[in-house]
Amino acid sequence: MKNIVILLNNIKKLFFAIIIVTIYSCSTDKVTNEVDVDTDNTDSNENTPNILLIIADDIGKDAINGFSEGNIKPNTPNIDAIRNSGLSFTNFWAYPTCSPTRATILTGKYGYHTGVKWAGDELDLSEKSLQKYINEETNNKYSTALVGKWHLSGSNSSFNPEVYGIDYFSGLIRGEAQSYYNWLLTEDGTGNLENEYTTKKFTDVAIDWISKQNKPWFMWLAHNAPHTPFHAPPVEMHNQGNLPDYEEGMDAMPYFMAAIEALDFQIGRLLESIPTDERENTVIIFLGDNGTPNEVAQEPYLGSTAKGSLHQGGVNVPLFISGKGVSRTGDINNLITSTDLFATIAEIAGISVSEINDSKSFKPLFTQDAAIRNFQYAESNNRKEAWVISNGSYKLFENVDGDKEFFILDNDPYENNNLLNGVLTTNETNAKLGLEAQLLEIRK
Question: What are phi and psi of 339, to 5 degrees?
Answer without folding.
Answer: -60, -30
